């Protein structure tokens, strides 16, 4: 890197709000991204709820392997409820 390249590097500092210019996106693109992410979150939550209810309801599915699947579905459902919505909002402002 030359000295001119170093001067042209844009540095972002978290304590200075205007240190990085925000990329302006089209409204239609923002709406499309939010709809896609919302659909992903809903499919994650309801798909895992279906697995949780199915394994919990039917006694013949109470095997050790299915209990591991149940615990994974429970954690994934909590991730879809608690983490993904905040990541969607904070990551795509």
Question: How would you describe what is shown here?
Answer:
There is one protein chain. With about 90 residues, this protein is mostly helical. Helices cover about 70% and strands about 0% of the residues. The chain contains 4 helices and no strands. Helix 2 packs antiparallel against helix 3. The longest helix is centred in the middle third of the chain and has 31 residues. It is elongated. It starts with a helix and ends with a helix. The model has no long low-confidence stretch (mean pLDDT about 85).
Please summarize what this structure is.
The chain is mainly α and 93 residues long.
Structural class: mainly alpha
Share of residues in helices: 55-70%
Largest sheet composition: none
Q: Could you give the distance between the termini? A: 33 Å
Descriptive key words:
93 residues, mainly alpha, 0% strand
Compile the SSE list and pairings.
Blueprint: H1 3-7, H2 27-57, H3 64-82, H4 84-91
């Amino acid at each position: 890197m030359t000295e001119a390249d170093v001067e042209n590097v844009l540095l972002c500092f978290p304590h200075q709000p205007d240190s990085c210019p925000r990329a302006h996106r089209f409204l239609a693109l923002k709406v499309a991204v939010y709809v896609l992410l919302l659909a992903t979150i809903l499919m994650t939550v309801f798909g895992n709820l279906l697995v949780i209810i199915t394994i919990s309801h039917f006694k013949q599915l109470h095997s050790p392997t299915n209990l591991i699947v149940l615990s994974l579905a429970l954690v994934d459902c909590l991730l879809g409820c608690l983490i993904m919505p905040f990541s969607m909002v904070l990551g795509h402002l």
